[in-house]
Amino acid sequence: MSEKHHPSRLRFNFGFFLEAPLGTSRTYELNYPTIQVDELTLTPLQGDFTAVRTSEGVYVTGQLYTIQHTPCTRCLEDAVIEIDINLDDLYYYPPDTTPEGEYALGEDGYIDLGPLVRELSILGIPLHPLCREDCQGLCPQCGQNLNQGQCECEIDNIDPRLAVLKELLSEDVKS
Q1: How would you label 61-71 residue by residue, b for 16+ Cβ within 10 Å and e otherwise?
Q2: What is the pTM of this model?
Q3: What's the number of CA atoms in the CB half-sphere (13 Å) around residue 65?
């Protein structure tokens, strides 16, 4: 039994482009306060894009903006990441001419921008997101968030492999 697929809220009907002359274009404005794209929640998703009929299909270009919440890699608090999404893709038509790994305009004339927006949103998140540039992180010994105050731990920055040398230095001081 197959799982029922719900259409994305980023699904647009471009069926009129199939009979339109080359160069026909239309601009769309998006202003979603919150939108779910698969497992991602984008709050907000705003911007605009233009669709243009080409000899190979429909070319979509535009600029979208969203905010993604993700854990800070230093302190694990919420990091708010602003993401600019640059749309610049061709949706091939007819679908059987679509190169592998590319997007296609469906036979029904619909384009679902959801997968593309999801992919570009994920790629827009930095590898090491920070809650702020000067984030102090967590104490490696007790786990105290150092942004909220110092802990009482003594940090020993000596590499354990070199601890023997520290002991030799301590013996020299005693003698």
Answers
A1: ebebebebeee
A2: 0.76
A3: 6
